[in-house]
Every structure is written in structure tokens, then in C-alpha cells.
């Protein structure tokens, strides 16, 4: 099970106590925000891309969207999301629970600047009924090696 991989990873890092498991689905930003009890923007959604044969995971704030121009400027290609049916095989987690914890070797992790607005964020923990309560700095430590990038756009206020 994907959550077991994520929990094993978080146990090694001393962060298992941060895992939250729910009776209801947390597979989307909106559902996760309801389950956690926070605003949707604090959900750290993990989007997965195929970048010229590389598997790239980028964590964004829940209200952020991929900015195609910024993505292309950084990665030198258009954003191409992984097909849902490929997630488990290529990442180690199914869609709805994709997270940067306990992932397959070779996956590259990036953290989008949109997360830095918050003191606490909630990425998934390997399945569609879980989350992990972390500061952006803790998230960075858990995702090492990772890189902070700016490839998002936020909604107009």
C-alpha cells in the first residue's frame, strides 16, 4: 500500500506523528481541505509530470495553477502531466494520494514558491484518505533533495 511506503519514510524521519488519516476522501484539494479543516490553499497538492522522460513531482499550494510559460521557461518543455494509470508504477502512489514521501527512485521533487505563503501546509500521505501537517521548512527537509521553483500562478484577488 502506498500509505505504508509514505509512513515508513516519515517514520525514518521522525515525522509519523504528523500523519492524519480520515474516514472520508481527501483525494482532491476541496475534499482534503474539508477533511483537514483548513482553507483549500493550504493543501499542498502534488502534480506529476513527464519532463522529457524524467518523472517530476511539483508540490503547489491548493489554489495555485501551473503557469505554462513559467514551466516552459524552467523545464524547457511544455507541461505534460503523467497519465493517472501510470502514477502507481512510476511514482509509487496512486492519484489522489501522490506525495513526495516514499516515492520510487529517480523521481525528482520540486516545491513551488506558492507554498511559502503559509506557516502550515498539508500534502497527502500516500493515499486518498490522508494528509501530513508540516511547515514549508519541514516539507523541504523531508523532500531533500528538492528545489524551490516558481512555476505557478495564483488566482486574482
Features:
single chain; 157 residues; alpha/beta; YbaK protein; five-stranded mixed sheet; two-stranded antiparallel sheet; 9 strands; 25% helix; globular
What is the topological layout?
Blueprint (H helix, E strand, L loop, with lengths): L1 H11 L6 E3 L7 H8 L6 E9 L2 E8 L3 E2 L1 H8 L11 H5 L16 E5 L9 E2 L6 E3 L3 H8 L2 E4 L2 E2 L4
Parallel strand pairs: 2-6, 3-5, 5-8
Antiparallel strand pairs: 1-7, 2-3, 4-9
Order of helices and strands: HEHEEEHHEEEHEE
Low-confidence stretches: none
How many strands, what sense, and barrel or not for the largest sheet?
5 strands, mixed
- What is the name of the CATH topology? YbaK protein
CATH class: Alpha Beta
The helix/strand class is: alpha/beta
Q: Report the portion of residues in β strands.
A: 15-25%
Question: How many individual β-strands?
Answer: 9
Rounded to an integer, what's the Rg over CA atoms? 14 Å
Count of individual domains: 1
Strand order of the largest sheet: 6-2-3-5-8
- The share of residues in helices is 25-40%
Amino acid at each position: 500500500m502506498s500509505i505504508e511506503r509514505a509512513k515508513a519514510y516519515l517514520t525514518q524521519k521522525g515525522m509519523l506523528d504528523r500523519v492524519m488519516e480520515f474516514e472520508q476522501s481527501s483525494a482532491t484539494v476541496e475534499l482534503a481541505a474539508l477533511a483537514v479543516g483548513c482553507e483549500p490553499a493550504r493543501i499542498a497538492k502534488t502534480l506529476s509530470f513527464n519532463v522529457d522522460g524524467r518523472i517530476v513531482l511539483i508540490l503547489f499550494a491548493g489554489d495555485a495553477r501551473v503557469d505554462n510559460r513559467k514551466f516552459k521557461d524552467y523545464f524547457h518543455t511544455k507541461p505534460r502531466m503523467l497519465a493517472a494509470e501510470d502514477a502507481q508504477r512510476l511514482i509509487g502512489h496512486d492519484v489522489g494520494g501522490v506525495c513526495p514521501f516514499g516515492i520510487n527512485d529517480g523521481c525528482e521533487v520540486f516545491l513551488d514558491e506558492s507554498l511559502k505563503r503559509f506557516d502550515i501546509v498539508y500534502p497527502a500521505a500516500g493515499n486518498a484518505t490522508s494528509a501530513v501537517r508540516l511547515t514549508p521548512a519541514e516539507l523541504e527537509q523531508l523532500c531533500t533533495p528538492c528545489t524551490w521553483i516558481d512555476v505557478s500562478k495564483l488566482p486574482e484577488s
